[in-house]
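Case study 2.
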Amino acid sequence: MIKLIAIFLVSLFLVSIIFSVISQMIYHLPYGWNIEATNSMYPLLKPGDLVFVFPIMGKLSPGEIIAYKPPFLNYYVVHEIINVTSNGYIVKGINNPTSDPWIVKSSWIKGFVPEIFGQPIIIPYVGNLIGLIRGTTGYIVAMIVIFVIYGISEVYDRNQVVLTVRRRNRRKVADPKTFAIAFIVLSFITFMILFSPHVIFTEIMWNSVPNAPLIPRQFSNNLGAVPPYSTIPITLNVNYHPFLLKIPLIILHSPSLKLQNVSLNLIFLLYTFSPGLHSEVVSIEILLELLPPQILNFLFILNPILPLIAESVEMSIVVGAVVYIIINKLS
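Prediction:
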């Protein structure tokens, strides 16, 4: 019975993924799983959560979370309806101080976030990992990981067949190596998800304009108007939770940013260059210093996702070794 339920849930999840790919890639609609990108709906929806968006069914009312896209934006906004007017809907991110600066028309709304017992359907943190594997290199790494997992599952299945044959003759405990390999795979996926919330790959833009105010900015995709040939401080809110073990953190970042200060927040310095529009692709990673900084920096230069993979592999091997030793002692 439990196996049937598990198969049903896995099948349902796979169907939802197919539904997401078709609606978003072919029809350019937000249906299916979407990555929450901002803090505007915190704590209900957190950055990096996978949020499920469903087509509109019936009349919308205050309290419902909708996904809408105005004609002047190139992305969908997921916010809560707080009021209904004759001209449309007033919506607001529950963590924002004010409502959105426009009335949302019905034609802009493409879907809503269904809830179960008052909670939206989400998968926490997985969106961070998906964001990391986007791009050609990321897809190649993801395919390699999938093939490795497939190979390990094949080894596991064959071991299970051998163990089944052996059990017919005599009782035997499960192979410690099999358990260790399974724990390595599960630990690798877990650590990738745990480490990924503090990894940022994005493009920042700014407009160098004479006489623009030289003031500190919050880290965002659009820094607005800044004075040319200047260095402006950019603050990144980290709120990194302290760990039980006081392992130091390492902060890896793009050459275009200069790290000035490290505290509860990170302060970077960015040079604004000549007048005009500018953009930079930046990478910022905040990781536990589980490997020597020289190795992590070298891997970061090769590809920003490599330090994350390296630390996840290291931790998963440690977990697998501990599991192997424990099971081997109990055998």
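The chain is about 35% helix and 25% strand.
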